[in-house]
Write a structure and sequence with these properties.
The protein has 2 domains: 218 residues, Glucose-6-phosphate isomerase like protein, domain 1 (Rossmann fold); 84 residues, Helicase, Ruva Protein, domain 3 (Orthogonal Bundle). It contains 12 helices and 7 strands. The strands form 2 sheets. Strands 2-1-3-4-5 form a 5-stranded parallel beta sheet, sandwiched between helices. It has a two-stranded antiparallel sheet with strand order 6-7. Helix 8 crosses helix 9 and helix 10 runs parallel beside helix 12.
């Protein structure tokens, strides 16, 4: 990087609100543990309100992602450092929580898998790295490509967004600086200015909290819209460990009023498919009948149950 380019980067960083000093934490180095916790907590309280100011934008992306997944598309996150790790984390948590296929929601981080645990110096500084990861992912419509960058300027993310747009993918950008500081065009911008961090430039704090909240809302909302939730319970979970197996039994017992042994039997008969077992218990019907109802209802348990009650009349 030339000296002039370095100076330009210095000037841009200096203008970012995430890089400014927070006047409310100026003496945190003198504080005792309780005061440190209070200062951080007081700043964290502001994050939820900042995210709340962008509900309309977030709702639009929930609808967009839901439609994309229903059409066979994917949600692909691209980020560096903390932002990248949050994308990978959100993607990794969807299959066990919602029974989604791992390829449906994926997270890409500058520097690859190693960067999840150890920072890969310089990996985020080149747009071409983002371009390469888009090419590697074979991104194409109806995929949704979501860039994550607290500062809004990460070259890796910009490269991914530009390449995705050139391929016809819908693009989303999540950042914690104001829209006027974003110099890349995207289809959907979610800008949540959280202000200066408690520790200057430490975007693993308020910025990361804001991004985590937004990603939770996007994927959870999209999965709700696709029938992965009954009332407020996740009924499409994958039984990948004993805890989830026991949770599945408890879900069946909660909605059907059946005992533990019966819930276990239903789960076994349904081949471990919780929604099927649930309908079997609710209507005293066979696995085949339950699956037919679910297919007719697009996977929505509530709609299938209404059909079930209608058939019983």
């Amino acid at each position: 990087m030339s000296d002039s380019s370095k100076k330009d980067l210095f000037d841009k960083l200096q203008d970012l609100k995430t890089e400014k000093r927070n006047p409310l934490s100026g003496n945190i180095d003198l504080a005792d543990p309780k005061e440190i916790a209070r200062i951080i907590n007081d700043e964290d309280k502001k994050v939820a309100q900042a995210v709340g100011n962008k509900i309309d934008e977030i709702a639009g992306v929930i609808d967009l992602v839901s439609q994309s997944l229903s059409a066979g598309g994917r949600l692909l996150y691209f980020g560096a450092g903390t932002s990248g790790r949050l994308g990978v984390l959100d993607a990794a948590e969807c299959p066990p929580t919602f029974g989604s296929k791992p390829e449906q929601i994926q997270g890409f981080i500058a520097g690859g898998k190693e960067a999840m645990f150890v920072a890969q110096e310089g990996a985020e500084d080149h747009e071409i790295n983002g371009v390469r990861d888009i090419v590697k992912a074979m991104a194409a419509p109806p995929d949704v490509v979501c860039g994550l960058a607290a500062s809004g300027r990460t070259p890796y993310v910009h490269g991914a967004i530009k390449e995705a747009a050139s391929r016809g993918c819908v693009t989303v950008f999540v950042t914690t600086v104001p829209a006027e500081q974003i110099d890349i065009e995207v289809d959907h911008l979610i800008d949540v200015p959280v202000g200066p961090e408690v520790i200057m430039g430490s975007t693993r704090m308020k910025s990361a909290t804001a991004q985590k909240m937004i990603l939770n809302m996007i994927t959870t909302g999209a999965m709700i819209r696709r029938g992965k939730i009954y009332e407020n319970v996740m009924v499409d979970l994958m039984l990948t460990n004993e805890k989830l197996v026991e949770r599945a039994k408890r879900i069946i017992m909660t909605f059907t009023g059946l005992d533990y042994e019966t819930a276990q039997t239903l789960l076994e008969k349904s081949d471990g498919h919780v929604k099927t077992a649930l309908l079997m218990g609710l209507g005293n019907i066979s696995k085949e009948e339950a699956r037919t109802l679910l297919n007719e209802s697009g996977g929505f348990v509530r709609e299938a149950f209404i059909k079930l009650k209608g058939h019983a009349k």
